[in-house]
Amino acid sequence: MPKAVLVDLTKCIGCRSCMVACKQWNDLPAERQGFVNDWATPRDTTAETWTVVKYYIEDKGGRVVWRFVKRQCMHCVDPACVKACFAGALRKTPEGPVIQDPSRCIACLYCFNACPFQVPRYRTGGEGPVIMQKCRFCFDPGGIYDRVGQGQAPACVRACPGGALKFGEREALIKEAKERIAQNPGRYVNQVYGESEFGGTSWLYLSDVPFEELGFPSAARPAMLSLLTWTPLAAGLWLAAKEA
Amino acid sequence: MTNHFIDYKNSDVVMVIGANPAENHPQAMKWILRGKAERGTKLIVVDPRFTKTAAHADIYAPIRPGTDIAFLLGIINYALEHNLYFHDYVVNYTNASFLVDPNFKFEDGLFSGATTKDGQFVYDPTTWQYQKDKDGKIKRDPTLQDPNCVFQVLKRFVSRYDIKTVCRVTGTPEDVYRQVCELYCSTGRPDKAGNIVYAMGITQHTYGSQNVRAVAILQLLLGNIGIAGGGINAQRGESNVQGSTDMAMLYHLLPGYLSCPDATRHPTLKDYLEKETPKTSFWSNTPKFLISQLKAWFGAKATPENEFCYQWLPKLDGKEHSHMAIFQSMAEGKIKGFFAWGQNPAVGGPAAEPTRKAMEKLDWLVVVDLFETETAAFWRRPGADPRKIKTEVFFLPAAFSYEKEGTVSNSGRWIQYRWKAVDPPGDAKSDLWIVDRLFKAVREEYRKGGRFPEPILNMVWDYDAPGSEEPDINKVALEINGYEVDTGKPLPGFAKLTNTGSTACGCWIYAGYWYPDPDLGVVAAKRRDRTDKTGLGLYPKWSFAWPANRRIVYNRCSCDPSGRPWDPARALVYWDGSKWVTFDVPDFGAKDLATGAEIPPEKSAQNPFIMVPEGVGRLFGAQYGPRAAALKDGPLPEHYEPIESPVRNLMSKQQNNPLAKIYQGEGAARGKPEKYPYILTTHRLVEHYQSGAVTRNSPWLTELMPEMFVGISPRLAAKLGIKPGDRVVVLTARGKVYGRASVLPTLQPLKVDGKEVEVVALPWHWGYQGMAPGDSANVVTALFGDPNTFIPEYKALLCDVRKA
């Protein structure tokens, strides 16, 4: 049964414990991104910052709305990045996570172009080759960073003090999300983001503010997806021809 | 806290005023959110800034810094005017019916008794007393009609705080303020619980104690004390600051909140006990607490014949020696040596630059910390000339909280044992190790001779653990808990303490925390049982809550005088007709200690507030003998302007608290609004802890919050031509600090008496050390303090801002 995480944005307090827990568990270094006006530095995910909490602060005619939105790889049900990766470095696991074999990554940027959420990022500094790195959902079968494979919640979920993150089976979490909407009239917008968006994702969101106002891409673009699927195929053929 | 963190989930309305749990107490916010999700708890957030907590509020009420008393008295006035107070609770469990001296007056912003002593303004509190009959009993009027009864005195006093006036003072929009009054006063019913959460936004003012009094009066009027989901819940500023105050890391106390002996008032043990022991209330046991403490410290040497070694205790000289006073004395060269132990006054104290300069007068300074803090490095701070500073600085590396074992007491008074996770690195040692070696070294010196060696040479200091370099923490814990002197057996609780010398106890309120639980086989502080019979989250066998493992204090008030719970769904204790049913440890006489017989409810209904001599909650803070002195600045809270304010006091011609403590020197310079037109306030951030001594040395946390910044409103930014991220300078009469401009709609100008007032907000976590240095906000704060606690004014000052 595929795993998932339900993020209830009405419960996030913006403490960013999830960000620190992620770096701690995955031995990721700190980066210097400098001051940003709304305090939410680092602003975006990078090869060494796999999750960020983005702040949305808006003055709606004298009433201020401030929401905290955790972003990371969405671990799509049918991931475009996997289709785009002609090197075979990415794969979708039956457990849900989309994980990577770094030794096969050739830094072609195809996954970056394919991802509707612009998640994959490339490690350019330091030692070793340039490779893509992203959130692996704390799933590292046989590796030292595995949590989900050991029956544990991801590090970010474990660290969340506000109860905003819940780890479980995807089907059960979708059911629970719908129950929360039904049982709390007026509390949420009537949408479980990730249930069907872009073919469905393993990270699911509930919110009281419309998702498009919080930076979530609003609709699937099937035409573009198929194009993106075909492009790497073509590229692969081209590479194969070149090698021959 | 009267209640505890988990209990927040039981509230119908939570009003957060002067606190920001989402940022500063995330684990507390969890329980507010639990209440919102599970029972529809409404959240009111009162703050000058739209905070992360406000992001979750049902009502956000902006307030001008330093006007909490006006805000709270306005709600009190609203409750009284609209009969929304909890009548039966007020009549039975507060001093509402007590008659006050008819000569008590309040005129022109001053209480009766204003006079001068040694050229200083003081109050003579003679008229702040109750009327007594021939037998010495307090006169009462249970109908609450007598014009001199507390209820009527209070009603007249707060009648000036109508909504319009309050909003002119506080800058809160009237419609928002009215909603706050309506929603919060809806908890003045038996089946509703209202919880007030506060922190440093309430206390750090020149009238901080009166702010707290205003909170207490409101909660008593609405019947919100002693019930689940209610209470006055002060969120402490550090994980174990509750424990450190319990253990008297304050100059005016001994452990367990016993008064520190004062040579001018208590030359003998007899004097101390006579002056500090009230005839009624639980404090009438003071002799048992103090004598057991002396036995714990001086052992067999302490006997009735030698005042239990009382003369070996250090005593006060009748003067004030709080934080700011210590640094004033240091600046005057009166203090030669100083320990900064887990404290970083060069960043955390007010008027940081004079603080750093004062340390130049020291012969020696010992800093015990994890990293070389700004205090440890004060001699090479920017602008200082190390060649001219003679202070010898010793740095002792300390173990972090997860590198040692011991208890941590949280704001809810739960004393939880924490086990060691990892060994400390390098030469770092636990505080216990350091203090143990230090004491032994000092004792060694005294063995060679000294001015007054007896207390040092005779103190019980026997914590060695054979075969271990670390002292035996069990021995320390047992001494704090208390034991029978003859057998050495731990005491189950403070009820067993005596004044004869047969018991020893280092801190009476902790008695029982180190007593083995018969079912779980561990001492109480190590319990981790998750049983919660009531569903109210009392968890009676999870750790130990002082006093007596009581989770909600004053819980007699959760029932009516006949012992029926006001709200059966939130019952903590109740009388079933023949006996008390207790889910929480009763905070009253439920059983006769000698016979075990049940004590009927009528008796405890007389004194449900067992810690005050009147036995009832104090709407009027009367002058009433030992441990019940009125606050120095009045029996009722009155609004005064902060020492630095952009406006005239609208409530009276008395501009400031006449007793506000203003210290000496450049740190106490006062700025005028003509030169410093904006209100300055300080705050914290979730990413950093206190002075940043640890967090600014943690790469992952400095990554999240790398630089000092200055919060200003979009309107002020536009007016001054400041863009987000610009380098700006904040100036006050004390100095200036630089930072990046953070321009967000979370700050908005307030309309105060028709005039727009801007608030500038500074986080105070930065300093010149660590991997993310920056200017310290406290360079621009001031040496102004509260006359009762001497806490500094950190929250309402004046400044100017410019593009740097």
UniProtKB/TrEMBL annotation, chain A:
GO terms for molecular function: 4 iron, 4 sulfur cluster binding; metal ion binding. [4Fe-4S] cluster 3 binds at residues 73, 76, 81, 115. Keywords: 4Fe-4S, Iron, Iron-sulfur, Metal-binding, Repeat. One of its GO terms (cellular component) is cell envelope. It is found in: Cell envelope. Its main location: other. Residues 3-33, 95-125 form the 4Fe-4S ferredoxin-type domain. InterPro entries: 4Fe4S_Fe-S-bd (IPR017896), 4Fe4S_Fe_S_CS (IPR017900), FDH_Electron_Transfer_Unit (IPR051555), Formate_DH_Fe-S_su (IPR014603). Transmembrane segments: none annotated. Binds 4 [4Fe-4S] clusters per subunit. [4Fe-4S] cluster 2 binds at residues 22, 135, 138, 156. Pfam families: Fer4_11 (PF13247), Fer4_2 (PF12797). Its cofactor is [4Fe-4S] cluster. This is 4Fe-4S dicluster domain-containing protein. It comes from Ammonifex thiophilus.
Automatic annotation (TrEMBL), chain B:
Its cofactor is [4Fe-4S] cluster. Keywords: 4Fe-4S, Iron, Iron-sulfur, Metal-binding, Oxidoreductase, Periplasm, Selenocysteine, Signal. It is found in: Periplasm. Its main location: periplasm. One of its GO terms (cellular component) is periplasmic space. Residues 2-440 form the Molybdopterin oxidoreductase domain. The keyword 4Fe-4S applies. InterPro entries: Asp_de-COase-like_dom_sf, Formate-DH-alph_fdnG, MoPterin_dinucl-bd_dom, Mopterin_OxRdtase. GO terms for molecular function: 4 iron, 4 sulfur cluster binding; electron transfer activity; formate dehydrogenase (cytochrome-c-553) activity; formate dehydrogenase (NAD+) activity; molybdenum ion binding; molybdopterin cofactor binding. It holds the Pfam family Molybdopterin. One of its GO terms (biological process) is anaerobic respiration. Residues 678-796 form the Molybdopterin dinucleotide-binding domain. It comes from the Bacteria. The keyword Iron-sulfur applies. Belongs to the prokaryotic molybdopterin-containing oxidoreductase family. This is Formate dehydrogenase-N subunit alpha. It comes from Ammonifex thiophilus. The lineage of its organism: Bacteria, Bacillati, Bacillota, Clostridia, Thermoanaerobacterales. The gene is fdnG.
